[in-house]
Amino acid sequence: MAETILVIAEQREGKLNRVSLETVAGAQALAKQTGWTVEAAVVGGESLAAPAAELAKTAVAKVYAVEDASLEPYTPDGFVTALKAFIESRRPKLVLLPHTYQVRDFAPKLAATLGAALVSDAVGCRYEGGKLIFTRQMFQGKYAADISVAGDGPCFASFQSGAYRADQVAAGDAPVEKVSATTGEIRTRPEAPFKEVQQAVDLSQAGIIVSVGRGIKELKNIEIAQALADALGGELAASRPICDAGWLPMARQVGSSGQTVSPKLYLAIGISGAIQHVVGMKGSRNIIAINKDAEAPIFEIADVAVVGNLFDIVPALTEEVKKAKG
Predict the structure, then answer these.
(1) pLDDT digits (tens, 9 = 90+) for 170-206
(2) How far does CA 149 lie from the centroid of its chain?
(3) For the chain, what is the largest distance between any 2 Cα atoms, rounded to a whole number of angstroms?
(4) How far is it, in rounded angstroms, from Cα 66 to Cα 47?
(5) What is the pTM of this model?
(6) Which of 302, 83, 102 is nearest to 202 (CA)?
(7) Residue 83 shares a structural domain with residue 158
(8) Fewest Cβ atoms nearer than 10 Å: which of 31, 50, 109, 316?
(9) Which one of 149, 164, 191 terminates a domain?
(10) How does strand 286-291 pair with strand 304-307?
(11) Mind giving me the DSSP string for 196-214?
(12) Beta-bridge partner residues of 128
């Protein structure tokens, strides 16, 4: 009997988190090396039809909708109890999760409850010498460490956003099976979401990001980048110095101390490319960098490098985008 890789996907209010599809892509890549079977599960209340159907369009053997009314809204108690019972019934070799805030909340307790190891925030995984080997970035991305886990499993691992590409997920037509979740006493009672959180942007879900750095020079010039983001239908982001200065909220910071993103298009405007920023966006599919310094480190990872004055280039680019859209 083949071993199983189980992907625990994340959904919010019936919408699948895009990073979950990246995790499925990682599971499929590993399955090609091992010959193991890939299955997926989505957990929640009574709004799982849409995310389960989206997962079912990928090349997995089966999708499980693990549901119970007590699992909506999310609580770590409910998820740990439900997933512990489900994982014990399925006995997978490996459990993969997207490295989201929610996963960070419940996964350590879930792994500990099952007496299993958890490798968090991995950027890759391979099967070598009969062992699973995970790669994690260390010291803000300056080094990469290979980690192997002893024991028979299950082993848990979460993949960093951008570690794999959602557009590389193999398509399929998987059956969906509803599973009544086993839930015990839920001790936590979540209150209404904090207003600031409701207003904050989740950059990990953005397809296009226009990001600004110190080269923007002053607060009023951010309007230039905002205009381009609006024309492209994208989100505005920034490197840490911009957010530290209070020019943009911390929720829009990309980097090791901010959000990790992997959009289809990332425009880096006036960003030098410090390693702390690069680790948060290097998984982007296409990177365009605009900087007057031809030796800027950001150009080392850029697909398109534009050397010049951003105050001349960006407004002209914005006008061309508007013209193209008619």
Answers:
(1) 999 999 999 999 887 888 888 776 554 444 678 888 9
(2) 23
(3) 63
(4) 11
(5) 0.80
(6) 102
(7) yes
(8) 316
(9) 191
(10) parallel
(11) HHHHS--GGG-SEEEEE-G
(12) 131
